């Protein structure tokens, strides 16, 4: 039974007056304690409970949860009871990121901890007394809840409350028998004396705190202005004086250039058409990349322009002599609404650098791997031992009296330059967790072993449409694919019309809402593909077995069946539902293309036909070839219809990895554009479109769709300029006019031109995003790239959590149509919008990680080669953009994009002799719209135009603190020809796996040459390896469609 209480809140208005608010607060007698020791069944609901083998329960105080959360995250700590009061303190005082970490910890089945809602339990709820500080009330509430918890369990389990409040230890330490109040440090020393990781973390945090306290007492000089109070910021935003947005630091000029992208009401009310420039660290005022900040605009006479010159690092600005662009809105940060601090990978300075930093050798300035993050000061005695390693740190604070933020050491990742250490760095920098699936999650998985094979259940057989004997179902996938999400079917109906079918793995049958595996999949949100490995969203028993629509086995599916007109292919009707299918063939793209071309000699590559006699084989082959051909006819019609509406064909580079018998990489095979690729893609797009329409019609305010907004016209300026240089006109007013312009922009003498123009169009695009239909007007649903009014993702539930949500929505819509009870747990609009933000964030992280791992492999390939002597290090390059001090190049052979300087740090400019070879000489550069001219003091000049071909030398610029980068140098203004190759017809990519094979060999040689003892650092490596084996690349056996993508391709449909 609910009981009403009154909760009094004392607030202060922005005018300084006190305001007393009284809120209703309801408490109840029964709140689940989630302990298996409790005799009351209501206290043990389905879901996560504390373990039954704990020797004690530990209740952390609010301050311990705030300061020592990463220690509490260690899986060795068991029986942790987080009180609601402590969790709310984290939410209100430490921001969303820290609170979300706590929420994820509580959901994670691998960690023995629970949340107890003490403020809703009538015996635990304590009103705040008059004059009592918030901190004292929080500690008192948590202690009372700990005492109640002990008595509620009938005194069966001792309770330890850990706190940093010495007064609380003195007051409550011996007040209640069975409830002990001690310091967190004392708790670790007495109960976990051998848990080294916990002690190191605790010492690091305590040392960092002592340093901050000492600094605040000693330093009185202000390095930065104080942030304005929250109430002043909110009032200023409301009045329009201040502007709210997200800080984005320019990684090429991290010390001087950052931009604030407008957010919320500020983006509509400010009247600004561009981002706001924040020039210099002082104006940034202790805000860090990703923070939600409040900005005050400077007077117009103080506005500055962004820099148009190329830059390798922040120190290059003066040497390169850049000229700024037109002034743009410029401001300064006056406050931070939300700190989005995360784990940062850093490098310790060398021994010489440590000695030069200052008097105190224990206070070290470490350099983050991410250029956009300022140096962080930490206190440690391990600086010399850690200087060759990548290390994780966390920021604790950034006071106005400190030039740099203060932080503490967390853990070691691996040696600098070691492949596993660098991969671990990429994962941490993108907040990607790759821990193995837990025992609790795996216990929810179905069993499919030779002893206990999985079979279709009689209940499912009755409730699903059985298509095993009525349809010819088959899949078309890349070679080596194991996680088959989708299959296709087509047949002629009795009246002559056609039936097209798309059948998608029914993952939701095995992944129940809010189950352990569902929560884990939701957290991961996607499968992460790196250049040499992948980390799955779901366990392999689902992703490569029971949810994979393999040939010759029964599988559950969710199907969309269309009846099409026999001549026009127009859709007459559509059916959605759960089905049982048995795929007849598992075709590769190349085999399907041969069948489409009428080449039946590939019959030996179709294993399902090998055992048949000649006549049966011919009959089955003709039937299959007809189906592939008919699917292609339908796809051509669907594609033509979208083309008429303005569908875009954008540019990307994709390579498949081929393995040898020992599962090592044997070859890199460029993906050849086949018509059958478009056939499959069009069928998937059609299914996604029709499912989007269906779920929106049934749930107009809580459907998950995917929008692709039209780009801002100013983003097309470089595309239009480059096209004009070749005599082409780019009409960017709509997707239709842009598509037509790109189709016409073909240079018969140089096919690279069209590829580069399409790549520029891709760069101008905004990313497609998931959203909840209740949060957008219907006119905003449109997908610009695909030219569809409504679109979603339905066809890949094995590797995308968004598709799982869409499957549940579709099944709920089907139940709604049948007037049946909706069994699926659907998200409200608010919850779905929050989930969409999370999935969008994880998708961006996956794209960044894939891009960074590709760049890592490129650098490792070129790192140990002599640029002067190695033929591989010389390549043809195409100029696609011109800057004030250099050009941007595209290297078709390697799929690399990068900068080449025409003026070096010494002020010398490039000069090319009669034979085309270049050298550095004194002189000057003059840039015009489509060209740049280098003129020496001797009067010789050379001009580089857009789309000129030049010869480029490739080398690697190594860095201890950051990732290595590819360095490009123009060595001739002539086209580079590989011996025996025709101009412009060289392969766009490497045909042999020199890159990855060389990296593999180098890593193996390094491991043989330097045997490192298996210490704790080696154990850190293993944390990041989801697939084990002698060869680093054995995990590639599991990869379905691994691609090294063109790193410029930022648009994801």
Automatic annotation (TrEMBL):
<dbReference type="InterPro" id="IPR033770">
    <property type="entry name" value="RRP44_S1"/>
</dbReference>
<feature type="region of interest" description="Disordered">
    <location>
        <begin position="308"/>
        <end position="331"/>
    </location>
</feature>
<comment type="similarity">
    <text>Belongs to the RNR ribonuclease family.</text>
</comment>
<dbReference type="GO" id="GO:0005813">
    <property type="term" value="C:centrosome"/>
</dbReference>
<feature type="domain" description="RNB">
    <location>
        <begin position="464"/>
        <end position="816"/>
    </location>
</feature>
<keyword id="KW-0540">Nuclease</keyword>
<dbReference type="GO" id="GO:0016075">
    <property type="term" value="P:rRNA catabolic process"/>
</dbReference>
<dbReference type="GO" id="GO:0006396">
    <property type="term" value="P:RNA processing"/>
</dbReference>
<dbReference type="InterPro" id="IPR012340">
    <property type="entry name" value="NA-bd_OB-fold"/>
</dbReference>
<keyword id="KW-0963">Cytoplasm</keyword>
<dbReference type="Pfam" id="PF00773">
    <property type="entry name" value="RNB"/>
</dbReference>
<dbReference type="GO" id="GO:0005886">
    <property type="term" value="C:plasma membrane"/>
</dbReference>
<keyword id="KW-0378">Hydrolase</keyword>
<dbReference type="InterPro" id="IPR033771">
    <property type="entry name" value="Rrp44_CSD1"/>
</dbReference>
<keyword id="KW-0269">Exonuclease</keyword>
<dbReference type="GO" id="GO:0005829">
    <property type="term" value="C:cytosol"/>
</dbReference>
<dbReference type="GO" id="GO:0008859">
    <property type="term" value="F:exoribonuclease II activity"/>
</dbReference>
<dbReference type="GO" id="GO:0006402">
    <property type="term" value="P:mRNA catabolic process"/>
</dbReference>
<dbReference type="GO" id="GO:0019899">
    <property type="term" value="F:enzyme binding"/>
</dbReference>
<dbReference type="Pfam" id="PF17849">
    <property type="entry name" value="OB_Dis3"/>
</dbReference>
<keyword id="KW-0460">Magnesium</keyword>
<protein>
    <recommendedName>
        <fullName>DIS3-like exonuclease 1</fullName>
        <ecNumber>3.1.13.1</ecNumber>
    </recommendedName>
</protein>
<dbReference type="Pfam" id="PF17216">
    <property type="entry name" value="Rrp44_CSD1"/>
</dbReference>
<comment type="function">
    <text>Catalytic component of the RNA exosome complex which has 3'-&gt;5' exoribonuclease activity and participates in a multitude of cellular RNA processing and degradation events. In the cytoplasm, the RNA exosome complex is involved in general mRNA turnover and specifically degrades inherently unstable mRNAs containing AU-rich elements (AREs) within their 3' untranslated regions, and in RNA surveillance pathways, preventing translation of aberrant mRNAs. It seems to be involved in degradation of histone mRNA.</text>
</comment>
<dbReference type="InterPro" id="IPR050180">
    <property type="entry name" value="RNR_Ribonuclease"/>
</dbReference>
<dbReference type="InterPro" id="IPR001900">
    <property type="entry name" value="RNase_II/R"/>
</dbReference>
<keyword id="KW-0271">Exosome</keyword>
<dbReference type="InterPro" id="IPR041505">
    <property type="entry name" value="Dis3_CSD2"/>
</dbReference>
<dbReference type="GO" id="GO:0003723">
    <property type="term" value="F:RNA binding"/>
</dbReference>
<dbReference type="GO" id="GO:0036064">
    <property type="term" value="C:ciliary basal body"/>
</dbReference>
<dbReference type="Pfam" id="PF17215">
    <property type="entry name" value="Rrp44_S1"/>
</dbReference>
<comment type="subunit">
    <text>Component of the RNA exosome complex. The catalytically inactive RNA exosome core (Exo-9) complex is believed to associate with catalytic subunits EXOSC10, and DIS3 or DIS3L in cytoplasmic- and nuclear-specific RNA exosome complex forms.</text>
</comment>
<dbReference type="InterPro" id="IPR022966">
    <property type="entry name" value="RNase_II/R_CS"/>
</dbReference>
<dbReference type="GO" id="GO:0000177">
    <property type="term" value="C:cytoplasmic exosome (RNase complex)"/>
</dbReference>
<keyword id="KW-0694">RNA-binding</keyword>
């Amino acid at each position: 039974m609910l009981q009403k209480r009154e909760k009094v809140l004392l607030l202060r208005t922005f005018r300084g007056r006190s305001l007393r608010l009284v809120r209703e607060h309801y408490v109840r007698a029964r709140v689940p304690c989630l302990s298996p020791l409790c005799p009351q069944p209501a206290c043990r609901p389905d879901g996560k409970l504390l373990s039954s083998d704990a020797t004690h329960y530990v209740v952390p105080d609010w301050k311990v949860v705030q300061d020592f959360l990463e220690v509490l995250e260690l899986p060795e700590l068991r029986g942790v009871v987080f009180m609601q009061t402590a969790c709310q303190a984290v939410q209100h005082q430490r921001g969303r990121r820290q609170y979300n970490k706590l929420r994820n910890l509580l959901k994670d089945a691998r960690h023995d901890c629970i949340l107890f809602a003490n403020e809703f339990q009538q015996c635990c709820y304590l009103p705040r007394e008059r004059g009592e500080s918030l901190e004292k009330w929080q500690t008192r509430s948590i202690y009372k809840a700990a005492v109640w918890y002990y008595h509620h369990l009938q005194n069966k389990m001792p309770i330890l409350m850990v706190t940093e409040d010495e007064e609380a230890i003195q007051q409550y330490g011996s007040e209640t028998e069975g409830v002990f109040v001690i310091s967190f440090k004392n708790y670790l020393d007495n109960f976990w004396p051998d848990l080294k990781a916990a002690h190191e973390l605790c010492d690091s945090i305590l040392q960092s705190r002592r340093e901050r306290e000492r600094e605040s007492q000693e330093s009185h000089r202000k390095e930065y202005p104080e942030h304005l109070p929250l109430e002043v910021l909110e009032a200023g935003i409301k009045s329009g004086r201040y502007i709210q947005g997200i800080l984005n630091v320019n990684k090429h000029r991290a010390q001087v250039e950052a931009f604030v992208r407008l957010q919320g009401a500020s983006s509509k009310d400010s009247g600004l058409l561009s981002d706001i420039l924040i020039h210099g660290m002082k104006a940034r005022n202790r805000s860090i990349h990703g923070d939600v900040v409040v900005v005050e605009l400077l007077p117009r006479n103080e506005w500055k322009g962004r820099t148009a010159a190329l830059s390798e690092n922040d120190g290059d600005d003066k040497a390169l002599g850049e000229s700024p662009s037109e002034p743009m809105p410029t401001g300064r940060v006056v406050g931070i609404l939300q700190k989005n601090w995360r784990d940062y990978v850093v490098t310790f300075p060398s021994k010489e650098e440590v000695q030069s930093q200052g008097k105190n050798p224990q206070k070290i300035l470490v350099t983050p791997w991410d250029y956009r993050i300022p140096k962080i000061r930490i206190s440690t005695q391990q600086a010399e031992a850690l200087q060759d390693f990548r290390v994780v740190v966390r920021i604790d604070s950034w006071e106005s009296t400190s030039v740099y933020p203060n932080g503490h050491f967390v853990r070691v990742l691996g040696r600098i330059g070691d492949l596993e250490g660098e991969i671990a760095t990429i994962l941490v920098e993108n907040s990607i967790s790759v821990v193995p699936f837990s025992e609790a999650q795996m216990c929810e998985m179905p069993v499919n072993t030779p002893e206990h094979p999985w079979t279709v259940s009689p209940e499912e057989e009755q409730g699903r449409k059985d298509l095993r004997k009525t349809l010819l179902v088959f899949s078309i996938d890349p070679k080596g694919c194991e996680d088959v999400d989708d299959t296709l079917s087509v047949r002629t109906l009795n009246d002559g019309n056609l039936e097209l079918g798309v059948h998608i793995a029914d993952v939701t049958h095995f992944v129940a809402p809010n189950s352990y595996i569902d929560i884990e999949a939701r957290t991961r949100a996607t499968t992460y593909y790196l250049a040499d490995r992948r980390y799955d969203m779901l366990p392999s028993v689902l992703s490569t077995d029971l949810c994979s629509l393999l040939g010759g086995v029964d599988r559950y599916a969710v199907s969309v069946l269309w009846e099409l007109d026999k001549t026009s292919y127009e859709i007459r009707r559509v059916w959605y539902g759960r089905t049982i299918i048995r795929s007849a063939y598992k075709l590769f793209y190349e085999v399907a293309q041969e069948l489409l071309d009428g080449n039946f000699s590939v019959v030996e590559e179709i294993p399902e036909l090998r055992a048949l006699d000649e006549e049966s084989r011919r009959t089955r082959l003709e039937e299959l070839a007809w189906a592939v051909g008919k699917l292609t006819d339908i796809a051509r019609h669907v594609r033509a219809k979208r083309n008429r509406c303005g569908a875009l064909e954008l540019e990307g580079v994709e390579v498949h990895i081929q393995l040898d018998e020992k599962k090592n990489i044997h070859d890199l095979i460029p993906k050849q554009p086949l018509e059958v690729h478009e056939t499959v893609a069009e069928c998937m797009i059609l299914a996604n479109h029709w499912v989007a329409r269906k779920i929106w019609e049934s749930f107009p305010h809580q459907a998950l769709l995917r929008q692709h907004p039209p780009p801002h016209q100013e983003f097309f300026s470089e595309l239009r300029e480059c096209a004009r240089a070749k005599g082409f006109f780019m009409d960017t007013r709509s997707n239709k006019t842009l598509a037509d312009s790109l189709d016409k922009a073909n240079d018969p003498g140089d096919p690279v031109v069209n590829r580069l123009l399409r790549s520029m169009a891709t760069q101008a695009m905004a990313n497609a995003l998931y959203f909840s239909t209740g949060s957008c007007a219907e006119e905003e649903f449109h997908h610009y790239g695909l030219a569809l009014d409504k679109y979603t993702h339905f066809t890949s539930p094995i590797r995308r959590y968004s598709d799982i949500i869409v499957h549940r929505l579709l099944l709920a819509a089907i139940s709604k149509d049948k007037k049946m009870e909706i069994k699926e747990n659907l998200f409200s609009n608010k919850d779905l919008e929050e989930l969409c933000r999370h999935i969008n964030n994880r998708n961006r992280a996956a794209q960044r990680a894939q891009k960074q791992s590709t760049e890592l492999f490129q650098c490792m390939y070129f790192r140990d080669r002599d640029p002067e002597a190695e033929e591989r290090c010389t390549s043809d390059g195409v100029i696609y953009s011109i800057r004030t001090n250099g050009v941007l190049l595209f290297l078709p052979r390697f799929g690399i994009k990068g900068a080449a300087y025409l003026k070096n740090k010494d002020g010398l400019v490039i000069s090319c002799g009669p034979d085309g070879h270049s050298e550095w000489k004194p002189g000057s550069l003059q840039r015009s719209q489509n060209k740049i001219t280098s003129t020496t003091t001797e009067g010789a000049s050379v001009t580089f135009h857009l789309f000129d071909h030049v010869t480029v030398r490739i080398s690697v610029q190594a860095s201890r603190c950051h990732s290595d980068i590819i360095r490009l140098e123009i060595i001739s203004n002539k086209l580079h020809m590989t011996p025996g190759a025709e101009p412009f017809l060289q392969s766009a990519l490497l045909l042999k796996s020199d890159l990855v094979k060389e990296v593999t060999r180098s890593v193996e040689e390094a491991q043989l040459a330097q045997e490192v003892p298996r210490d704790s650092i080696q154990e850190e490596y293993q944390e990041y390896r989801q697939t084990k084996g002698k060869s680093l690349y054995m995990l590639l056996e599991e990869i379905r469609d691994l691609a090294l993508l063109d790193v410029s391709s930022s648009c994801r449909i």
